[in-house]
User: Fold this.
Amino acid sequence: MKILVCISRVPDTEARVAFTAEGSAFDESGVTFIMNPYDEWYALVRALELKESLGGSVTVVHVGTAASDPIIRKALAIGADDAVRIDAEASSADFTARQLAAFAKSENYDLILCGKETIDYNGAEVPGMLAELLGLPFVSHAEKLEMEGQKFVLTRPVTGGTEVVEVEGPLVVSAAKGMAEQRIPNMRGIMMAKRKPLKVVPPVEVEEKVQFVHFELPPAKKEVKLIDPENMDELVRLLHEEAKVI
Amino acid sequence: MAHTTSIQKGSTAKQDRFQFHDYYLVEELLSEEHRMARAAVRDWVKQEVSPIIEDYAERAECPVHLFKGLAEIGAFGPSLPVEYGGGGMDEIAYGVIMQELERGDSGIRSMASVQGSLVMYPIFRYGSEEQKRKYLPKLGSGEFIGCFGLTEPDHGSNPAGMTSTLRKDADAYILNGAKMWITNSPIADIAVVWARDDEGKIRGVIVEKGMKGFSAPEIHGKWSLRASITGELVFEDVRVPKENLLPEAEGLKAPLSCLSKARYGIAWGAIGAALDCYDSALRYAKERIQFGKPIGQFQLTQKKLAEMITEITKAQLLAWRLGVLANEGRASAAQISMAKRNNVYMALQIAREARQIHGGMGITNEYPIMRHMMNLETVLTYEGTHDIHLLITGQDITGLSAFK
Assistant:
């Protein structure tokens, strides 16, 4: 089975979010970037598990600059066979999906896996757009992905329970928590990653439809007033007179 | 963002909030592989070590199950060739791995130090091809646990005085004697043991568990390295087949070369323990309010923290430079002594200062400080004591030996 896994680069969850002057861009100084956990822990690892049981290959693809090479190497260290980097800033979901689609069209993948969303913008748009651009079926937020004969059987959450769907490939799947478990690369994988192919390809022409105008932080938290639990009258007074909510 | 990059096992496990500190951007001197190795071992420690270590240390039990995980991540002999079960990495990678392991616990790092530097390395360096093929892959994969027998009850700092003997007898050697303070010995499948042959020369042999006359009783009652198992090695007329003799090792320089490898790893490792203490103290100082402000705002706390990061930064640079020299095959035993001595003492001082910043909380298992501090008391004197390493430097710069 030929599998493509789309990976993105996101700020570490411990990164402090700040913006450059006048909120024009995210301030990357001092920020550590990681592979998006949904892409790494679930999409990539499930792809590797399928390859291990059924044979085939796992390619990772990424839209980004050379600054992303460490996360691509990590994907190779975890076990992907080869990698492709489309050399452009992933400026919007639309732009990214069009770049991925242009690449994915050139190869016949049986399965394209993405994380269900990235943990920076939490947009969750790229996998759906990619499926549409490729004319493939799309299953989002899959918690389980199995093969039964030639069919993919996927489990996804619905309110109050789960839904099981059966799809004929090729298809695009966005992976949610539960599909696999994190794999930590070992030293041998890290050394092998150095020798695995990482191909850099130019982006295709895409008309930018989205322009970011401005970023701003949420308002700073106000000071907290602690009221003695015995002093309910004071609480009521403050809610009435200061907070004006009752 | 409901995500955290560290996974907590079980709801009762304490959260490992460690963040790396690199004041002089020393990471920029490292390669992409080094950084990836560091991140991988740190993730492994957060996932496997941090949630359980206080409990094991408290119960003075070795988490033996971690041997398998250490092997899987590639912590055993990472700088040995891949064909012999190693990782094919360089000495800096080895150092970085030891640092991240010791950030978790000195005892866990000791498990890996001994297996890699004191068991796999001597077999790789001094063993026959058959010995390498027979033992190294199994040691690298964690199927075999190894230990190293040099120190004797009456010969610690002076290993040249050892009295264990290897008497030639037809196709075997008869091993007699006792070894003391042997990490991993009670659970070891093999022991690399040093003893004097009929001519009085120090030779190394591989002793296997189950050989008649060989026992490895555990040493109890340690207040340090409580999550690491320590024992003796007792040999009463143990018949060791002659093919278990390390053919290339002759004289004290052979075991000392292994110790150099291990000490090199400790020079890096101790920084890990120091970083964990500093990181905890820094966070505590910013969160703990006294007299209406965070204690980190007081000058005396700032002095402690500022001195800590200064010393850590110096130690990081020392270890990095030593690593470059080791990669070039130019790191001398005396240079390794200096780094081991400096960095372990630095870490111990930081643990003590960090304990003060934490106040009473610092002595509890809510924080890693006291465990690191107790561990480092051992690290200060094992693999060459603090004082002996000073005298090695003294001898190196004056050309005069204080040992004679």
In short: DSSP finds ten helices and nine strands in chain B. The CA atoms of residues 182 and 231 of chain B lie 5 Å apart. The longest strand of chain B covers residues 172-183. Chain B has a mean pLDDT of 95.
